[in-house]
Specification:
Blueprint lengths: L2 E5 L7 H12 L6 E5 L1 H10 L3 H9 L10 H4 L8 H12 L7 H10 L2 H6 L3 E8 L4 E6 L8 H8 L9 E3 L2 E5 L8 H6 L4 E5 L17 E4 L13 H18 L9 E2 L3 H19 L9 H11 L7 E2 L1 H18 L6 H6 L1 H14 L6 H10 L1 H13 L1
């Protein structure tokens, strides 16, 4: 059996992959093969050389100057709010044949240890695109050497035409994402019989998986990771935690969907509240199906702006929800009109919740049916609040 780790491209979202690796290390899940494209090729090399602390430190402290030479990007005041400005600048730069890749290249040479990579028992493969022949190149460790491996990794991460194309000997190469941004097929070609595939959600060309008889565990972000053009330590620290959380959930070591809970918390919630919640669904709103509790938790969390990166105890999470509802209730005393309730879900939640509580959990069947049709997600949230209160 050969287990492979596949890492997609993703630019500034790459911290997510290292968070996944942290979880896999804790679970003692090892690999025989690592295959990556773009930032996945860089992270993959760090994994092959077994430099977790180095990789974690890289992403915890990353900034624009890790990738870009240009002073426009090394301005420390550049924030997520200026993504549009970044994009505009890149469009102008593209017409000038792309940004210099020297900063990225120098850092790749600084962080990668070719001796460790070639001495590792883990096979390693990356995807680049050969502009000279207009063909993809899937290249593995055995086809590279200590002199050119860093060049190929730079080429795989060279997002053309944002960056200048990378010349190796007499050929020009660009980002492997132009052929396959998620190289599962490369891992299969390298002999994988089991795959853990980590996708950052970045756009790009994805090749159809050539075989369906190989088990694949997909780890995909449940939360937004931010723009791939943004490189800063706050965003990356959040990405590290989200990657860890999603990997632990994928292997049933933590509970939840978007929000993350300690193992066993959701079963505990079901045991304590599910019967009450199911009865409320049927008796007050006449729902034919019980509400999806995990979906409702996610809806409430996002509506009330609860941080998705934390690992919660369900009792603490519910207390945060109820405290936020109390605060929101105080700010919604003034009637803001019928149209406002349709535009602002949090206002609808408070209004409907208060109506039901004021009527001692009794609601006209016609009214209940109308509310369920107009605000299905809000009604599920109201039922959940009544169930845990």
């Amino acid at each position: 059996m050969k287990r492979a780790l596949v890492l997609s491209g993703g630019g500034g979202r790459g911290a997510y992959q290292i968070g996944v690796w942290k979880a896999l290390r804790e679970l003692n899940i090892d690999f025989d093969i690592v295959a990556g494209t773009s930032v996945g090729s860089l992270n993959g090399a760090l994994i092959v050389q077994d430099s977790y602390k180095l990789a974690e430190s890289l992403w915890q402290n990353i900034d624009y100057d890790f990738v870009f030479n240009d002073k426009f990007f090394t301005n420390k005041k550049l924030t997520n709010k200026k993504v549009k400005l970044v994009r505009k600048y890149l469009r102008v730069t593209i017409f000038e044949k792309g940004l210099e890749v020297k900063a990225l290249e120098n850092n790749i040479r600084k962080y990668l240890d070719v001796d460790k990579i070639f001495n590792s028992k883990i096979d390693y493969g990356i995807v680049v695109y050969d502009l000279s022949s207009k063909k993809p190149l899937m290249i593995t460790k055995s086809q590279m050497n200590k002199e050119n491996i860093k060049d190929y990794i730079v080429a795989s991460a060279t997002v053309y035409p944002v960056f200048k194309k990378k010349k190796i000997i007499d050929k020009y190469y660009i980002d492997g994402g132009f052929y396959d941004n998620f190289p599962i097929n490369l891992a299969i070609d390298m002999g994988a019989t089991e795959i853990i595939a980590v996708y950052t959600g970045l756009f790009g060309i994805l090749q159809k998986v050539k075989r369906n008889d190989i088990p694949i565990t997909h780890i995909i972000p449940k939360s937004k990771l931010g723009s791939p053009l943004i490189f800063n330590n706050l965003k990356s620290k959040r990405g590290l935690q989200l990657g860890y959380n999603d990997a632990m959930k994928a292997f049933n070591q933590l509970d939840g969907n978007i929000y993350t809970f300690k193992k066993g918390n959701i079963n505990k919630l079901y045991g304590e509240c599910k019967e009450k919640i199911d009865n409320l669904s049927k008796n007050i709103f006449g729902l034919k199906e019980n509400i999806n509790i995990l979906f409702t938790i996610d809806f409430l969390g996002k509506l009330l702006d609860i941080d998705e990166a934390n690992i919660y105890d369900i009792d603490r999470f519910n207390k945060i929800i109820l405290d936020k509802i109390k605060t929101l209730n105080n700010s919604c005393i003034i009637d803001k009109g019928k149209l406002y309730i349709f535009k602002h879900r949090e206002y609808a939640l408070i209004k409907i919740y208060n109506i039901i509580v004021s009527k001692s959990l009794k609601l006209n069947k016609i009214t209940a049916k109308i509310l369920s049709k107009l605000f299905p997600d809000v009604i599920s949230a109201v039922i959940y609040l009544l169930g845990i209160n």
